[in-house]
Amino acid sequence: MILQALNELYDRLATDPEYEIAPPGFSPQKISFRIVLRPDGSLFDISDARSPDEKGKLQNTVMLVPGEAKPPGAGINPGLLWDNQTYLLGRQPEDKPDGFGQKRFEALRQRHLEVESAINDPSFSAVCRFLEQWSPDDIARFPILNDVGTGFGIFSLQGEKRPVHEAKRIQEWWRANSEEAQDGDVESSQCLLTGVVGPVARLHPKIKGVTGSQAAGASIVSFNANAYESYGKSQSFNAPVSEEAAFQYGTALNSLLTGPRSKRHRIRIGDTTTVFWTEKPTIVEGLFADIFSGGSQALEETEDPTRRAQIQQLLEAVRSGGRYEEHGESQTPFYILGLAPNAARVSVRFFHRSTIADLVAKLHDHHECMKMVRQFTEDSGSRFPDPEFPAVWQILRETARVADEIPPLLAGALTRSIVEGVPYPEGLFSAIIRRIQADRTINYLRASTLKAVLVRNHKLPIPTMLDTANPNPAYLLGRLFSALEKTQEDALGNVNAGIRDRFYSAASATPASVFPRLLRTYQHHLSKLSGGAKVNRERLVQDILSSVDSSGFPNQLPLKQQGIFAIGYYHQRKDFFTKKDTPGTPEENA
Question: Cross-referenced Pfam families, in alphabetical order (predicted)?
Answer without folding.
Answer: Cas_Csd1 (PF09709)
